[in-house]
Amino acid sequence: MKVRTTMQPHLEIEVTEAERLDLERQGLLLPDEAEDDSAKAADKTSDAKASQRKGA
């Protein structure tokens, strides 16, 4: 899998899943656009559910 790091954001590097997890835990990965989209969708879903609970 290819990732971009905060140290060299202009380069995509090939890493294993274990390496990606280590980099992520250290805060060295740049946010992926696909991950951002899924995170935003999850936020919208949780916001909608919270609004429904308040209205009920």
Describe, in plain words, how this protein is organized in 3D:
There is one protein chain. It is elongated and about 45 Å long. Strands 1-2 form a two-stranded antiparallel sheet. A hairpin with a 7-residue loop joins strand 1 (2-4) and strand 2. It has 56 residues and is mainly α. It has helices at 17-25, 33-55, and strands at residues 2-4, 12-14. Helices cover 57% and strands 11% of the residues. The chain has one domain. The protein contains two helices and two strands, in the order E-E-H-H. The model has no long low-confidence stretch (mean pLDDT 79). The chain starts with a strand and ends with a helix.
The major pleated sheet works out as: 2 strands, antiparallel
Number of DSSP helical runs: 2
Q: What portion of the residues fall into strands of 2 or more residues?
A: 5-15%
Please give the radius of gyration in angstroms. 16 Å
Oligomer: single chain
**Using DSSP, what is the number of strands?**
2
Distance between the termini: 44 Å
H/E element sequence: EEHH
- Helix content range of the residues, please? 55-70%
Strand order of the largest sheet: 1-2
Count of distinct structural domains: 1
Low confidence ranges? none
Arithmetic mean of pLDDT: 79
Secondary structure category: mainly alpha
* Global shape: elongated
Q: How are the secondary structure elements laid out?
A:
Elements: E1 2-4, E2 12-14, H1 17-25, H2 33-55
Antiparallel strand pairs: 1-2
Short key terms for the protein model shown above:
two-stranded antiparallel ribbon, 56 residues, mainly alpha, 2 strands
